[in-house]
């Protein structure tokens, strides 16, 4: 069902040199445009304004009964929670296809927000889990109710089923909810387990699979993050199941969508560049996991590396952290854009 945390598993993703082109390059077909809607993020700001590439939902996407008002109802915003879910829609040769990357924390947030935005989740053609943490997979319960017995495919790394906990010194360890393969299959999902890169949507969406760890500063999770190896709890710094989505916008470059970015934002981008042979980074959207004291030393080299890549759009959400947000906004003032539940970002050829 998953790896056992053996030295072989860990060794496969330790930082190492990876010069030159990929041994097995990916022919990622360019698209005319990609739209990324953050269905669930840590914040919802109804006062954010849009521009030529960003659409904001505002207050008036939906209304609910509220008898204390004279007309008996009030506008409602969107759910924000410590989780992430993104609807990725690609446009190519007159066709439009949508995938869901992650499903948020709570069972109903992604369904609630989709309904308020007018997004038909039954039209989604597949789900990709960035990794097995519960704040990215919690919405699968509500999604299963919405889909019924439809055999919706889910692309998932084999280690997404790993038992994990947070064991902070001098505190009782907190077990993290463990994703159940049997439960998902019982709800009708069709599981596709892969460590290797996958091409979806007629070859124009790349799931990175296990990410090469090549930088010397992205060291992963602190010692409190542990995994069960079958005989003991051990430090799980690498989160080997971490993966991202990649789209190549024709004539512009790569758009990378992360869940948490546990593999490291720079590692993920470099991995995508190596796999595809496309050197340009056009957009980076999602969680970059740079929040908290353990990750703050990683902020300066990460920001420097991303600045050197010159992306047109950076939407750093979820677990990025406020210090990293400020650093990215200062270093990339024309590219950085605040994330918010319900926002749609469009990048076109």
TrEMBL record:
Q: Domain Metallo-beta-lactamase, which positions?
A: 92-172
Instruction: List the transmembrane segments.
Output: none
Protein's name in the database: MBL fold metallo-hydrolase
């Amino acid at each position: 069902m998953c790896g056992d945390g053996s030295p072989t598993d860990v060794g496969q993703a330790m930082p190492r040199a990876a010069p030159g082109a990929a041994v097995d390059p990916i022919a990622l077909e360019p698209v005319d445009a990609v739209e990324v809607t953050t269905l669930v993020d840590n914040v919802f700001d109804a006062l954010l304004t849009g521009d030529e590439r960003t659409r904001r939902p505002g207050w008036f996407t939906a209304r609910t009964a509220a008898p204390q008002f004279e007309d008996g109802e009030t506008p409602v915003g969107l759910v924000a929670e410590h989780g992430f879910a993104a609807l990725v829609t690609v446009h190519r040769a007159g066709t439009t296809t949508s995938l869901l990357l992650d499903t948020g924390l709570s069972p109903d947030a992604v369904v609630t927000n989709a309904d308020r935005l007018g997004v038909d989740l039954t039209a989604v053609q597949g789900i990709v889990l960035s990794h097995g943490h519960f704040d990215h997979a919690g919405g699968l319960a509500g999604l299963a109710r919405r889909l019924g017995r439809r055999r919706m495919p889910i692309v998932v790394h084999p280690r997404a089923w790993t038992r994990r906990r947070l064991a902070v010194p001098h505190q009782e360890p907190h077990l993290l909810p463990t994703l159940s393969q049997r439960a998902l299959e019982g709800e009708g999902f069709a599981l596709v387990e892969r460590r290797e890169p996958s091409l979806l949507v007629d070859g124009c969406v790349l799931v990175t699979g296990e990410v090469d760890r090549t930088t010397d500063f992205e060291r992963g999770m602190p010692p409190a993050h542990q995994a069960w190896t079958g005989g003991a709890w051990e430090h799980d710094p690498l989160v080997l199941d971490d993966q991202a989505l990649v789209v190549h916008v024709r004539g512009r470059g790569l758009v990378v969508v992360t869940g948490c970015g546990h593999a490291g934002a720079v590692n993920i981008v470099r991995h995508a560049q190596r796999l595809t042979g496309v050197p340009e980074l056009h957009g980076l959207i999602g969680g970059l996991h740079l929040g908290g004291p353990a990750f703050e030393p990683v902020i300066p080299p990460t920001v420097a590396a991303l600045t050197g890549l010159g992306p047109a759009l950076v939407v750093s959400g979820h677990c990025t952290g406020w210090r990293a947000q400020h650093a990215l906004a200062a270093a990339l003032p024309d590219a950085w854009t605040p994330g918010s539940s319900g926002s749609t970002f469009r990048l076109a050829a």
